[in-house]
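A favour, since you know our structure tokens better than I do. Go ahead and set the record down below.
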Amino acid sequence: MVVAVAVGIGFAAPPLLATAGSDGLPTITPEQLAEQVAAAEQQPLSGTVVYTARLGLPELPFSKVTGANPVSLLGGSSTMRVWTDGAERSRAALLGDVSEYSVVQDGPQAWTYSSTDNAVVHYTLDDADTARYDDLAAKAEAGDLPVEGDLPTPAEAARQAVTMAKAFSTVTLDAQTEVAGRDAYQLVVTPTSQTTLIGRIVVAVDAATSTPLRLQVWSRADAQTPALELGFTDVTFGTPADSVLSFSTPPGASTKDVVVALPEHDATTATVPGALPEGVTVSGLGWDSVVQVAGVDVAGLLAGDPAAASALPGADRQFDSKGAQQLYDQFAPEKDAGSPLGTLDTSALYDQLTTAVPEGRLLSSALLSVLVTDDGRVLVGAVPGETLQALAR
């Protein structure tokens, strides 16, 4: 997911002519590469992904005790195995030294498993929502879903994305590279802003399948080593075995069932480009944008209170874009779902990662700043913490 988001950002850049060098790949422009990625079908594949974060966050000694856990993604290197059939079935496993945290999706069902706690959470829809999901899936496969407005071709979508962000970035294609043994183009995106924390983003795209293979994000403070890196070390294109994509509860594991509601389509917001949920505002432009959310019950969220999560602005938001909706649904908290961090003391983590400032608590990293104010506002942006503090006053 992170790679997909970065590719979307990366292609929102001015149409500078560039080539991939003279190493054998055809000459191509950023717009053409954007079109190829937009038009490409999702590929069935399996592979190993290494994630490395050098975000400059405080040392978290207790994160090592928890083993394979999403909190380990805050710093250091982590290894993940991923499998997908290119459609509705996938598995991702975050590997620790002696433990594993995995997520398996099969259409409307999903499972998470933490070997540290030997605990499974099974997410399902109720009967009515399952029937509605199956109906929508069948219509989508048949091409019968209603489409509001014009649906641009991949070429037009790529052109629009490039045109929209001319004021915020410059883009070039670096020399051909090799990632996981495959030839790839390298898209280099450099913000024109002199105040954003982000120095540049490089996305390596597989020349044969147009699949993103690696993402590297540099902080403006360090031009030599990426602050964030996510890339395949090996990858095989082809449908994984059914046994890999199926979930079986490990012996002795505890199981918790969570019924998740399939949100209704909200035409009042989904059809309005750029519509924001009540309580959410955006200031600044481009890479200097800051998102501010009001009315956040931080204490409740840290305590794992489902009411605090469901009360977040836009908690039931719907998007016209399937990709955007999937991304939002994956990271948006679900009622009664529990925390993916398991039994980790989230209040201690919060105190460790943030520092006290006059406005509240501030998290500062190499790429992102987050300010939680004493009056229940959360400000987030790829800008220095001082910028958020000034906006909060």
